[in-house]
Hints:
The chain is of the alpha/beta class and 222 residues long. It has helices at residues 14-29, 40-48, 52-64, 86-92, 94-99, 134-137, and strands at 109-115, 121-124, 140-145, 151-154, 161-163, 170-172, 180-185, 188-193, 201-205, 209-211, 216-218.
Amino acid sequence: IGVDQGDEFIGALPEYQADIRAAQVTAVSGKLWAWPAEQADWLAELTAENSLSQEYLASVVDTYYGLWGAFDSEYGMWGMYIAKTRDDLATTDPQGAAIMANQYFHPYLTYNARIDASFVGDFSLTFNKSLSYTNHAQYLKDVTLTGNKDSNVVANQFDNNITGNAGVNTVVFAGQAAQYQITNKNGVVKVEDLQDDRDGMNTLADIEKLQFSDSIIEVSSL
């Protein structure tokens, strides 16, 4: 907050800060962000406190990580940002897309998501339009099931770290078993997809079963 209108940036990444500001200026002038009339007073407030770039960046980040994909609007950020999904960014706000392109932010969420103990079923890390939560969950890499219910995890293209709970847990993969290299060393199970851009390298703990498109493998048999 309070850095937008200084003569120069004095932070750790001044060139990156300058890119963010330039993207924000383009977004405001081009009516890509905060253009609805009801945002006028808010924009004036942000301008006065020199925090336009901060709030613009928050909108870009939220869209990039899928927080608005399930929102009932054509646009993201409560209808005030032109890009609703990551795929939208490149075409609707290319400067916004550029500041997210491996300069500072990861393409995936870096925290380990702990799934609530009440969850039962398949928690999908792969986008499924019938499951609204996967608009965001598709960008998770590491998850931990909690509690004791028999729950499963559907892997995605990232190198997942998946930890099971006290129940019987299955990790679901997209391909046939023969298309993966599977190892079990001292209780650490690794499942590597030999096909690019599908299921990645997965490290599993406290998982009982591996489900493939053609078979189910008991981890205890490895």
